[in-house]
Amino acid sequence: MRHTTLSRAAGVLATLCAASLGLVACGSSSGSGSDGGGKTSASDVQSALDKGGDITVWAWEPTLKQVVADFQAKYPKVHVKLVNAGTGNDQYTALQNAVQAGKGVPDVAQIEYYALSQFALGKSVTDLGAYGAKSLAKSYSTGPWSSVNVDGGVYALPMDSGPMALFYNKKVFDKYKLPVPTTWDQYLDDARKLHKADPKAYITSDTGDAGMTTSLIWQAGGKPYKVDGTKVSVNFGTDAGTATYTKVWQQLINEHLLSPVSGWSDQWYKGLADGTIATLATGAWMPANFTSGVASASGDWRAAPLPQWQAGQNASAENGGSSLAVMKAGGKKDLAYAFVQYATHGAGVQTRIKNGAFPATTADLDSAAFQNEPFPYFGGQQANKIFAESAKNVLPGWSYLPYQVYANSVFNDAVGKAYSSGTPLTSALTAWQDKSVSYGKQQGFTLQ
């Protein structure tokens, strides 16, 4: 699924603990992995399954429908109510309201990686260390696993992942004799050649997207966010990875080499279909969107490794992906964890892969069956080999803000000006930094 750029107002998207972010209520966890309740054994979880009961799962991801059906068939005493409470921030708003009201909280919730730390710091989700979740570290690829680890605890299990790749229109590249770029400098050169040959064609579209921007900074080795409990720093100004990214992207903006079409619009899909948008640098979840939304261009597109910021490197980053978390206010935590483990680590993983999901589990990423699967849309290309290699090359150490939901919601207010009014990208990112710092202080975080 794509990484959603949020757009709600700050008041709606306040951190879950904003009502009392006096740091006693919302301070960092102890990292004990028990939520104060000690250890929970596998036999306790099995007993919950044998006893049965009802649990509610809030999620929008479509492959979970079959997972729920299979889970209930295996455990007939368990009934899972799957609720689509909205996608991304629509669900987060509903979840926040339920937590604050103290009623209507689901047992399990789908939470995207960039949003998880906000819920963890707000102590709304359960530290799964009590269930031995830390022992699963090697079961998941680097990016997703690091994303569910917050302040010493494991606050969800990875459901899928979005290691990045470059999707390119081979038909267009062949027509204009463009090399598939292995570096971002080559990408810039391709952009110039393409737009000169056809002024209606662009290397990609970009009107300002928080997810893509932070992912490319991540790939460049940037670490603009540092988080230690409620101590936070935001630094785009002197971050080396940010400087590497802005150097190339500013040229793309200055030379008008980016399509002004907004992502996920009808015009965007049309551009992908007719070749006027020639590439996308995004997560490995994208193929399903090509198949459903750009069917007329089947056979034209291919996948390639993400271009590198320096020749010879082999670095990647994540863009998108979600986890499943056990809500702390849920009434049946053991049963909820059993479902989460089944869906993210057990038989449910294969069910989801068969229905088009991209896994976060290393066993599946490494399997020959997965890597050798041909993609008819990409002319029979075994694209999973590229995606699986990308997953292995995701740079470690990236952090999101514990209020990234809010930060992303104001991205276009600040950084969007770099695309529309000539504001330098570095200045626009500094403005975004200032907004993020100001908000963090208002919510009681210590900004360093």
Describe this structure in words.
The protein has 448 residues and is of the alpha/beta class. The protein has 2 domains: 18-161 and 321-364, D-Maltodextrin-Binding Protein, domain 2; 164-317 and 398-447, 3-Layer(aba) Sandwich (D-Maltodextrin-Binding Protein, domain 2). It is built from 20 helices and 15 strands. The chain has helices at 42-51, 64-74, 89-101, 113-121, 142-148, 170-175, 184-197, 210-219, 240-254, 266-274, 286-293, 333-344, 348-354, 362-366, 368-371, 383-392, 404-409, 411-414, 416-420, 425-442; strands at residues 53-58, 78-83, 108-112, 149-150, 153-154, 157-158, 164-169, 204-205, 225-228, 231-234, 258-259, 279-283, 301-304, 322-326, 446-447. A 5-stranded mixed β-sheet has the order 2-1-3-14-6, sandwiched between helices. It is globular, with a radius of gyration of 22 Å. The model is unreliable at 1-36 (pLDDT under 50).
Give a brief outline of the structure.
By secondary structure, this protein is of the alpha/beta class. The chain contains 20 helices and 15 strands.
